[in-house]
Design goal:
The protein is α+β, with helices and mostly antiparallel strands. It has five helices and eight strands. The protein starts with 9 loop residues before the first helix and ends with a helix.
Length: 228
């Protein structure tokens, strides 16, 4: 059976049409050119060198014969202040702000520095050292050790626990012990000069590590009230 023009399928008519075939070839060429451009741009970007504002080639450093070769590392430690570890612990709240009248009368203030919270006192280090020694041996604090050469005190602080009120569905869990905040523990207080008539009282745990902000603020507030 021979197909006549009237019996040819419409799709075959499109493929047989010379105009349609030419358009298909054009689209195929454009697709190949586009794919080639993408591949070339990827290769060029991979081999691209970093651009600097200025550069200068210098001779490599040569070690003298009587000296050892320096230790070469890919990473270096830059000297400077370290971020307090307490920044990522618990609730990083700022220190409690005193009322204006109380702040004017007080000669000690809680500050934030490179080693965390500390107590700044408007007095020389020797005087603060003596006054702090009397403060750490009364009213819930027991002096454990004294290191005059480092202006350090080891002491124990007995805190009055604060019961946290339950809210919501947690009040129905009657068999669970109530949560409380208790800052009791062993601490190290260190005095260092901060000028002619100013000193800092640094507070650490028994191992000499930084305290979280909430604990440090609470104990320093007690010391601030005693030092005035």
């Amino acid at each position: 059976m021979v197909a006549t023009p009237d019996t040819v399928h419409p799709f075959l008519k499109l493929t047989i049409d010379p105009g349609v075939r030419g358009l298909n070839r054009l689209f195929a060429k454009l697709f190949v050119l586009l794919l080639l451009a993408v591949v070339l741009s990827a290769c060029a970007g991979r081999d691209r060198q970093p651009v600097y504002l200025a550069g200068e080639e210098v001779e490599p450093i040569r070690t003298p014969d009587h000296l050892d070769d320096p230790e070469v590392r890919t990473t270096f430690q830059v000297a400077g202040y370290f971020l307090p570890e307490m920044a990522g612990q618990h609730d990083a709240r700022p220190p409690r702000v005193l009322p204006s009248a109380e702040a004017e009368r007080s000669r000690s203030h809680i500050r934030f520095g490179p080693r965390g919270l500390f107590l700044e006192v408007e007095d020389d280090a020797e005087s603060v050292w003596r006054r702090l020694g009397f403060s750490l041996d009364r009213g819930g604090m027991q002096l454990r050790d004294v290191r005059p050469d480092r202006l350090q005190y080891d002491f124990h602080f007995s805190d009055d626990p604060t019961i946290i009120d339950r809210r919501g569905l947690s009040r129905l869990v009657f068999w669970r012990s109530p949560e409380q905040i208790d800052h009791s523990g062993d601490y190290v207080a260190e005095v260092e000069p901060a000028g002619e008539q100013a000193s800092r009282v640094l507070l650490m745990d028994s191992g000499g590590d930084l305290l979280d902000m909430e604990r440090a603020e609470h104990v320093l507030s007690v010391l601030r009230e005693r030092l005035g």
